[in-house]
Automatic annotation (TrEMBL):
It is found in: Mitochondrion inner membrane. It catalyses: (S)-malate(out) + phosphate(in) + H(+)(in) = (S)-malate(in) + phosphate(out) + H(+)(out); H(+)(in) = H(+)(out); L-aspartate(out) + phosphate(in) + H(+)(in) = L-aspartate(in) + phosphate(out) + H(+)(out); oxaloacetate(out) + phosphate(in) + H(+)(in) = oxaloacetate(in) + phosphate(out) + H(+)(out). The keyword Transport applies. This is Dicarboxylate carrier UCP2. It comes from Cirrhinus molitorella.
Length: 310
C-alpha cells in the first residue's frame, strides 16, 4: 500500500475552518504587542478619547519607543491588554475569512479549474464581510482595551466581560457594532489584498518551479502579502481604529472621522502606526499562514488515520 501524504488530498472545509482559527490565535500570541503599539500610535493626536480619561497625554515615538514607553509607564502586561477579546476575535474572524475563502472561491468559479482574479477578489470581499458581521463586538472591545491607559485607578474597563457589559449599557447594543462600516471596508481590502496576493505569489512560485509547496514558499508568499496589505489598507485601518475608540458623539460617522483627521493632522495621519502595522501584519501573516498550511496537513493526516481501518 502506498503511504499517505496529507498534501495528496485537498483539505476539507472543516479542516480549513478549524486550522485557520487556531493558526490565527497562535499568530496573535506572537504579534499582539505590535498590534497594541499600532493602536496607540494611530489614536495619538486625538483631542479626546474615552480610553485616556483622567490621564495626561502620553507621547509615543516609533514602534519600539511606544513599546518601551508602555512597559515603563504601565508595565509589560499592558502590551497584551485586550488579548482575550483578540483571541475571541481571531477564532471567529479568521475561521470565517480564511477558512471559508477556498470554498467561496470555488462557488464563484462554479467548479471550473480556472480561477481568475475576479473570483479571488469576490471571494475575499465576501468572506471578509461575513467575518466582520460575526466578530465586530470582539474587535470593538479589543481596540478599546488596547487604547486604554492601564496605569492608575481610572481604568474604564476591568475585564473582557465587563467591557461588553459597559459598552452595551452606556452606548446601547449598537455600541458593540460601532465602526462596522469602516471595518467591513477595511477587511474587504485586507482580505482581498492579503489572501489574493498570498494566493497569487504562491501560485507564481509554484508554477515557475522556483519553490515547492513547503515552508520557504509559504514564508515568502505570506511576507509579500503582508507588505502589500499594509500599504493599501493603512488609511482605512487608522480611521477604523479612531472611530471605534471614539467617545459617543465625537464623530458623526466614519467619513466625518476621516475628514476631521485630514483637517487637523494632514494626510500623514492616515499612515500613523505604519511601521508597527507592517511589522505586525508581516510577522502575523508569516506565523499564521505557515502554521495554517502545516495544521491543514496534520489535520488531514489525523483524519485519514481516524477513518482508515488498521
Amino acid at each position: 500500500m502506498v503511504g499517505f501524504r496529507a498534501g495528496d488530498v485537498p483539505p476539507t472545509a472543516t479542516v480549513k475552518f478549524i486550522g485557520a482559527g487556531t493558526a490565527a490565535c497562535i499568530a496573535d500570541l506572537f504579534t499582539f504587542p505590535l498590534d497594541t503599539a499600532k493602536v496607540r500610535l494611530q489614536i495619538q493626536g486625538e483631542t479626546k478619547s474615552p480610553a485616556n480619561t483622567g490621564h495626561g497625554p502620553v507621547k509615543y515615538r516609533g514602534v519600539f519607543g511606544t513599546i518601551s514607553t508602555m512597559v515603563r509607564v504601565e508595565g509589560p502586561r499592558s502590551l497584551y491588554s485586550g488579548l482575550v477579546a483578540g483571541l475571541q476575535r481571531q477564532m471567529s474572524f479568521a475561521s470565517v475569512r480564511i477558512g471559508l475563502y477556498d470554498s467561496v472561491k470555488q462557488f464563484y468559479t462554479k467548479g471550473s479549474d480556472h480561477v481568475g482574479i475576479g473570483s479571488r477578489l469576490m471571494a475575499g470581499c465576501t468572506t471578509g464581510a461575513m467575518a466582520v458581521a460575526m466578530a465586530q463586538p470582539t474587535d470593538v472591545v479589543k481596540v478599546r482595551f488596547q487604547a486604554q491607559i492601564s496605569a492608575g485607578a481610572n481604568k474604564r474597563y476591568h475585564g473582557t466581560m465587563d467591557a461588553y457589559r459597559t459598552i452595551a449599557k452606556e452606548e446601547g447594543f449598537r455600541g458593540l457594532w460601532k465602526g462596522t462600516g469602516p471595518n467591513i471596508t477595511r477587511n474587504a481590502i485586507v482580505n482581498c489584498t492579503e489572501l489574493v496576493t498570498y494566493d497569487l505569489i504562491k501560485d507564481a512560485l509554484l508554477k515557475s518551479s522556483l519553490m515547492t509547496d513547503d515552508l520557504p514558499c509559504h514564508f515568502t508568499s505570506a511576507f509579500g502579502a503582508g507588505f502589500c496589505t499594509t500599504v493599501i489598507a493603512s488609511p482605512v485601518d487608522v480611521v477604523k481604529t479612531r472611530y471605534m475608540n471614539s467617545a459617543p458623539g465625537q464623530y458623526s460617522s466614519a467619513l466625518n472621522c476621516a475628514v476631521a483627521m485630514l483637517a487637523k493632522e494632514g494626510p500623514k495621519a492616515f499612515y500613523k502606526g505604519f511601521m508597527p502595522s507592517f511589522l505586525r501584519l508581516g510577522s502575523w501573516n508569516v506565523v499564521m499562514f505557515v502554521t495554517y498550511e502545516q495544521l491543514k496537513r496534520a489535520l488531514m493526516a489525523a483524519r485519514h488515520n481516524w477513518v482508515t481501518p488498521l
